[in-house]
Each structure stands twice: as C-alpha cells, then as structure tokens.
Specification:
Blueprint (H helix, E strand, L loop, with lengths): L3 E6 L7 H9 L6 E7 L5 H7 L5 E5 L7 H15 L4 E6 L3 E2 L3 H6 L8 E10 L2 E4 L9 H6 L12 E4 H10 L10 H11 L3 E12 L15 H17 L8 H11 L2
Parallel strand pairs: 1-2, 1-4, 2-3, 6-9
Antiparallel strand pairs: 4-8, 5-9, 6-7, 6-8
C-alpha cells in the first residue's frame, strides 16, 4: 500500500491534539507517517513523550506570517517538504479521522495527480451535523446565480497525490491571499483543473472550536466574510482561461466590498 503522510497543524490545539493523534494511530491501516507542525504548543515535551514510540515527526516552525490563513498554509508547506508519502492528507489538530480513512484513501485509484475529498461530521456541543445538509446549494438556480464550486469543504477532508501538491505549491503564491485558507485554494484549484475526486463517505469528524481559522469569517454581516468571498472569486477568475468570467454573486461581492 502507498505511504500516506498526514500533516497536522497544531497551533492553539493543545486541548485536542492528543485525541487528534490517537485517531490516526487507531487507523485500520498502518501505512502512514504523522507530521505535527506548530510554532507554539503547550505541554510540548509531555506530548512528545507520550507519543515517543510512534512514527511521528514534530516540526517546530518559526512563525513568518501573522495572518492565520497564510500561517496555516506555510506550516503545511513546511510539513510537505519533509514528508515522504506518495499521498498527502491534511488534518487540523482539533479534528479526527475515522478509523477507516487511511485505508480508504490509500485504496483510491488514480490519485497521483489528483485531489480527493471526503464527507465530514461536525461536532457542535455533541450534536453531530453532516456536511451534506445544505442541499439547496446543489440546485441549478443556486449554481447558476451564485457558483457551482464544490460545497462543504474542510481542510481535514483533503488528501491528494504528491505530484498534485508539488504542482499546487509551485503555482500558488500565498502572499496574494490574505483571507483564503488552503482548503479553498486547493479545492478550487483542483476543481478548475479537473483534478478533483469526491468520495461520498464520512471519513472525518470536524470539531467546532473557538480557534478555528473560519471563525474570523462567519456571518453575512461580517465584512471579512465578503472580503474572503470576493477573494475566492478573484482566485477562481485567475484560474479561468476566459478572464471575463462573471457571475451575479461576484458582482454582489464587488458592490458590498466597496462599502468596506
């Protein structure tokens, strides 16, 4: 079976990182390595001691970027550079992999130059919400007026071939994107390049926490919600061969951002 490198971002995830790591160690398949990326990690020595006999690499990275989304991207990139896997899986330090995820991803054919996503459950105060709940986004009218992009994305549901990530990191200049996290960048990139595969199975549990990168962008009354949405459109436009790509949603975002 192909080796999978699971890159875990652990910044401010001290309360969850042990369970996150344990969810990986409980996998049915054992063909993986774990790379824990962080700048500051409380109880760092205790965590290292607890998992000292496992195939885990702890990568302490000097923080170069204050912006949370850019910093997350940079940590994953640094983790990627020391990884050895033919397949790369991303995991936030407060999320969990279900026990069959590694085996399911490693058995996915034709992954070398592609990105794969799976479904996730969200744990909100012990109430589990599935990631396919917002079915209205699949309606033709929504896709025509708003966008037809992949829906219900999350960093911890992303896996892909090593060659895909090499090309992705080479082509994406993170300094251009203040608000887009790596999940949106990678999935829009793969979608437009026709390199995206969707596994319609629940393989990930996403934990809702206060330190989530997305917390800064929640709510349509939040100016950063609209700034990020416009940045998504601009990024997607940069990938389009037709530079005059327009949509109703794009125009609305442009207008609203004028007032910010």
């Amino acid at each position: 079976m192909k080796l999978i490198s699971i890159i875990i971002t652990a910044e401010y995830k001290e309360n969850y990182i042990k369970k996150c790591i344990e969810s990986c160690l409980r996998q049915n398949a054992k063909n993986f390595e774990l790379i824990i990326c962080y700048t500051k990690l409380k109880n760092e020595n205790l965590i290292k001691k607890k998992f000292s006999k496992t195939n885990i690499k702890f990568l302490k990275i000097k923080k170069k970027l204050k912006n949370k989304t850019q910093d997350q991207f940079n940590k994953i990139f640094e983790g990627f550079k020391i990884s050895k896997g033919e397949i790369i899986s991303l995991l936030d330090g407060d999320d969990l992999f279900l026990k069959n995820k590694v085996s399911r991803i490693s058995n996915q054919g034709n992954i070398n130059i592609r990105l794969v996503t799976d479904n996730f459950f969200t744990d909100k105060k012990k109430i589990f919400v599935n990631s396919t709940k917002k079915n209205f986004k699949n309606f033709f009218l929504y896709q025509l007026l708003i966008n037809d992009w992949p829906k219900n994305i999350a960093t911890s549901t992303i896996s892909g071939g090593r060659n895909f990530f090499i090309k992705f990191f080479n082509e994406i200049n993170i300094s251009k994107f203040k608000y887009l996290a790596i999940d949106a960048l990678a999935i829009l990139y793969a979608y437009k390049k026709k390199k995206l595969i969707k596994i319609d199975e629940y393989l990930t549990q996403k934990i809702d926490t206060e330190n989530s990168v997305d917390k800064n962008f929640n709510g349509i009354l939040n100016q950063y919600y609209w700034k990020r949405r416009l940045e998504q459109h601009n990024f997607y436009r940069s990938l389009c061969k037709k530079k005059n790509y327009l949509s109703f949603d794009y125009l609305v975002c442009r207008i609203i951002n004028i007032f910010f």
